[in-house]
Amino acid sequence: MRRVSTFLTVIIVCLFMVTGAMAAEAGALRITEMAVTTKISRNNPIDSVRRINHRSVPALYCFTRILNPSGTETTIRHIWYRNGQVAAEQELNVKGKKWRTWSKRPIGRDSVGKWRVETLDSEGKLLKAVDFRIN
After folding, report:
1. What is the CA 81 to chain-centroid distance, rounded?
2. Could you tell me the pTM of the whole model?
């Protein structure tokens, strides 16, 4: 009888751990759209850049659409990398269950190279990344 009781206790504890982890994941931020774009119009990106000439536009934007199930105010961080080196970082507020935000990076002749923008949550967890190239 004692073995059955111990076994049931272990099963119950495991179930609580699994459902607790699932609830934590359900409350986690999720990126539903992320794009490097040449312009934001009416709070939306107008295009998605994969390759662009440095003479085409004076700046690029990293647009991020976020689903925040908990609705609690938090932050995300955009980290812009050029050729594997951090070129810029920007912390952005998330103030609702569905939120859109973006960061801006000026570009010029010195911007030529391989780029990557990573979005991290407030704990530093990578949520999503976008790669592109400036010629």
Report:
1. 14
2. 0.79
